[in-house]
Design brief:
It is a single chain. The protein is mostly helical. It is built from 14 helices and 2 strands; from the N terminus they run E-E-H-H-H-H-H-H-H-H-H-H-H-H-H-H.
Length: about 425
């Protein structure tokens, strides 16, 4: 191979070296540039990996911690991300600016490439150092967040297990021929909450996720428990319906016996003693008929397994029958009490006077003179008793008014006693 060529300039001859003589240096520079490129690429990869790992830590902290320190950490990470973008851009530009695989790459260009890539690598390494120091400072927050997040998985699993148990309980009840449409609707309503629960703490936060899991657990447990009780509840409803039908029939029979009692009251006592009871028989029959109609509605609801409607109707019937029972009983009770006081009014008088004397002794305990605010109502009670006794004189005394007056006097005396005890208890 020709090692050189001659060129004549004037008289002299100049021999120039071939390009191959310089090829060794160019290859060396290109190799250095390639090594710088590889080092920068490694630094870029390590920085990118560290940033990805740190982003996971920041997301973990954000999911579990809403404190100012956690928010500041997230803001610092964003700022570091901008710095990483800057140095990464410099690195990418340096790589794109030079094709180190070109055969005719000049040594000067390779040298410049090596210099730029080395600077890019140094910047990447320096920013990675900042990232690592930042990550070290995050460790306390990260430890706390991971502890919080550790609560999420067990809570979620408990909630899902409760939902499964509720679903199984509903299936078991349906297998027995008992519908549970309202419970099924309540269970279906938990579906959106389950979706949010599955989205996890990263989207909704630890506290909200754990609280949601607890709510699902409670609601699902309630559905399961109610489903398990449905067969027993159905049997209890059947028993109550039978009992209420029997009671309604008994009240109808008792209402038919009110008229003879009213006749006895009219015959033996003044109109003031019984006139407020005149409508009891008619009202009792009407109220019993209304209760029986509601019982038929309750039976229809039972057949359709509308448990909430059945329960509401049963309660309404029970309340109506209680009121009717009280009204029907009032006539016989009135006759019994009036007969007793007509035989011996003094028993009621003595009972009332004993209450007054007991209150007077309490008012005077530890005192030479009673408090006027206590003495006045007690003196008035004595006077009311005397007036009530005087009212019994005559041909047709109002015994019912007398009984009511004695009850009211005892009530007034009891209020004085309670007031005295309260005041002395606070002293």
């Amino acid at each position: 191979m020709e090692r050189g060529r001659r060129t004549r300039y004037g008289r002299g001859i100049v021999t120039t070296a071939s390009r191959r003589w310089f090829g060794g240096r160019d290859e060396s520079r290109r190799a250095d540039a390639q090594a710088a490129k590889d080092a920068a690429a490694a630094a870029f990869y390590e920085l990118d990996t560290a940033q990805r790992d740190l982003r996971i830590s920041i997301e973990t902290i954000a999911a579990a911690d809403g404190s100012p320190a956690a928010r500041q950490a997230a803001e610092r990470f964003v700022a570091l991300g901008r710095r990483i973008d800057e140095v990464s851009h410099v690195y990418i530009e340096a790589v794109d600016a030079h094709d180190l695989d070109r055969v005719d790459l000049e040594g000067s260009v390779a040298a410049r490439a090596r210099e730029q890539l080395t600077r890019a690598r140094d910047e990447l390494v320096r920013v990675q150092g900042e990232l690592e120091r930042f990550a070290q400072g995050l460790q306390p927050l990260l430890d706390k967040a991971e502890t919080q997040l550790a609560r999420v998985a067990p809570a979620r699993e408990r909630a899902k297990a409760a939902l499964l148990a509720a679903s199984d309980a509903l299936d078991a009840v349906r297998a027995k021929g008992v519908r549970a449409d309202d419970l099924a609707a309540r269970l279906a309503a938990l579906g959106p909450e389950l979706t949010k629960l599955n989205q996890g703490a990263a989207q909704h936060g630890v506290q909200e996720t754990v609280q949601r899991a607890d709510r699902i657990l409670r609601d699902a447990e309630a559905i399961r428990a109610e489903a398990a009780r449905l067969p027993e509840r159905a049997a209890e409803i059947d028993r109550r319906l039978v009992s209420l039908r029997t009671r309604a029939q008994a009240l109808r029979n008792r209402a038919d016996r009110v008229d003879p009692v009213l006749s006895e009251l009219r015959r033996r006592f003044s109109a003031a003693c019984w006139q407020d009871l005149q409508q009891v028989p008619e009202e009792a029959v009407r109220d019993v008929a209304r209760a029986e109609e509601r019982l038929r509605e309750a039976s229809a609801a039972r057949e359709e397994q509308r448990w909430a409607d059945v329960t509401a109707l049963i309660e309404a019937v029970r309340g109506a029958l209680d009121a009717t029972d009280e009204a029907v009983s009032a006539a016989q009770d009135r006759l019994t009490r009036l007969e007793a006081v007509a035989r011996d009014p003094q028993e009621e008088v003595q009972r009332t006077r004993f209450a007054i004397r007991d209150a007077q002794r309490l008012a005077m305990a530890g005192r030479s003179v009673p408090e006027p605010r206590h003495a006045a109502p007690l003196d008035e009670a004595v006077a009311r008793v005397e007036r009530a006794v005087a009212g019994l004189e005559g041909r047709h005394p109002d015994y019912w008014h007398f009984l009511q007056e004695m009850e009211e006097v005892r009530g007034a005396v009891s209020r004085v006693v309670n007031e005295i005890r309260t005041e002395r208890g606070h002293a």
